[in-house]
């Protein structure tokens, strides 16, 4: 394409609310423009990247045996009522009435639609296994859209659904998709990790993995062990327990009962440690929560964070929230900050790390007082003990005997999930086996955020001057920049190179604008096209300068050589 | 692809509400499935056709210099308020509030979004001309969705927008798109006509064309002249006037004034002609209408149909509707059916055909009476005369001196429209010319119904047994059908052919199912893949049967020959 006819409006200043580097660059380089909060138009360069990513996704999913379909965005609410999600989904689900006053939703995902389809069309084991996928615009009314394409309200997504007879075929489909994902992300040039993820009450162990692109802007935290390769979303990451780990204990270990200490105003762990001159890991914090309407207390070491997903799972609860001030006042003898496990009249869950303490400092269940020298098991029961907290850097790896956990930030770019029969049961998607016996179809679901992936690639492939797109997803493969478009021999050589590249299947952009070289190179850096050929004063001799965006030393080479290098570069990831 | 793993659930019985042949076949052959009224899922075969059509559209639009973008479906109502369409669009526009209580619409079209983008990003004549397009899902809450993909509520559409400095650049963009459309429809194997269409109050003459695929199921009527090639949507088709045309006149031509006739109960033209023993073309019907709140009468010959679009245009009215009973009672001296032009106290418009009558029969403006021998110009004024009716078969062509109009039914598959500055003015999309003077950008808009086109192609390419897809849009190019998949030599030859075809770029479907030949051929006819190779008992000799769906005589040929023919066939439209 000739650049003078490319619609790529660049910007010098970007809005101050563009927090992520990828978002700022996409605005600056004219890849996207906002239409509303979390809603974007893809301009030609952005759309080209999106199409290249989509093409890779299609190729790899077809290779894995999945078939492409297209389901509608408009979905009758009735289907969502049948699955139970119409009420459960919350305000992210966009709802409206059609002109006949029927309730509809705008699809944030398609489990209901696809399961209803399969319920109608599949009835025999002969039709299984099968995996369907689509690449489609999805809608979620996010509370706080941010980071450009990373958290939008309208976004492009690949979602796939597998259907099989049993766990064995589910596992096979899951593996095939997992491997396809690895190929997709690798081809797009991403540094990523497949991590264990929480799968709620369905799926069991290994029932869900997320794929995380490593990036500081990521909203997820990955806990990983460099020793054995274990990695998991922090939501899910288990905490290893090892004999002989050092234990932090508070003073007063020898007393036969806890000592009451006056701690006025010490409501937070920070205030408490300051007041008493101890470390946070010597303290126990006791949280009041409401799980499915039942009040429950949870005791965590002061330096740790409670993990609500683990707690929910351990309790088998559908909903879990922190108790509000009113609930605390009704149930506890002291205000928040002074509650403790000793003598508490509520079901009490103890985190492993608390159970492992010899003594600790805890709330006294009396306003403005704490207890020093509390001994777990002696002063409060250890009947309900479990892994209730977020893993922390330095924790022992839960899988191997030597490694310790480390933390990285990640962007969730994909998800694979063993659904089991969660949707096939309510939507009556059954099949008859060889003997004629009927069972619900066993399903998996799989998602890749296509537009989010574009941001993730951008986060990993950029510098101060602009993007550095991997060849496989770059909007163009080669950028031809004549120093002066008015110079006849430069122009002739540039156009010849353009024709050669296009004929050789290398998508080229030719900067035919009447601009200063500095302006042209600045835009070229911003766009981030992998190969660059500058056609300058040696054009008459057939000599040009070849460079790469990710390795910018320019080399004087023949035009034919430059074209060859562009072609070689285009074939790389 | 191997057919045993293709999800293409065929049906014997289709729902009785599937009125169009294309709709019935798409259901029967497993190309689509309904999710709600006017809302469909595209199954793998249907999606393949849609993708092939989209690819052709992209190729031809890129060749015409248009650039692809993707705009969002979620659009802030604010943009629609600015253009004035938020109120005007009616119940087809799906509206909802987001979680922040802001009004949004689901895009049925994108003039507002694209014009707002251009208002922000284009400011100089140097950035013009430019044409942007997208292929995207659109939403219109149709009052009566029908005919499957022909009139749906969610559908795939290509919409394009051109931006230029003036009428000249608009005309150039319009021409380029018009020609691209012709190539697109021809490549997809459609029999179609580009017809003049109404462009409302904008655009002037030649400001809008529709592309119609000829099909009896079409909801539009095309008036055309076989002699000179004139063709127009009936909404817009002009009526030619020729000297010496025979005139139908009622009796009583010699009297000096009309004669009052008692015609009890003759409220309709049918009742009137029966009661008086005359032909409909001897009568004059007088319609009361309300244009922009003003009552107006319109006189049309009894055998003609009023054309509201022409009337609206002639009156320069924004809105036009038939007067209701209350309005008639308030304004006219007689009830509907007995109103006539003689002595009527309302602005009166006369159709050319009425002005051309020597005498006629008309309502007497007195209940249960008509007037015979009414002479236009003598008994009522001919001050406001115009073309107010639909053209009818046999009418003189408005363009040439000899031809007469004929009528065909058509499906509107595309539209090109000169918008002018309708959106650029309210949305302030201005540019500065070379002298720095600012003017609004002159726009055109262009649409192709991609999913509707799929139905139109299907309507034109089918028979009792199924589809007969043109090669360019067929879901597969070649269908390999072994008589018996269990026969080792048939299977080996079929698989060899499959590999040969795939390697040669011919998309093949191999029926590897363990079914009777009759079942396989029935499905093959239904799917309508252009080339077919039946591998039967002469497989061991390397001989197969080649046939084409549109020309089913089978020929025994060598496998290599059959593969060659498939390849040749795939290259045809």
UniProtKB/TrEMBL annotation, chains A, B:
EC number(s) per entry: 6.1.1.15
Gene it is expressed from: proS
UniProt GO MF annotations: aminoacyl-tRNA deacylase activity; ATP binding; catalytic activity, acting on a protein; proline-tRNA ligase activity; transferase activity
GO terms under cellular component: cytosol
Basic and acidic residues bias locations: 237-248
Recorded catalytic activity of this chain's protein: tRNA(Pro) + L-proline + ATP = L-prolyl-tRNA(Pro) + AMP + diphosphate
Protein name: Proline--tRNA ligase
Chain segments carrying region Disordered: 237-261
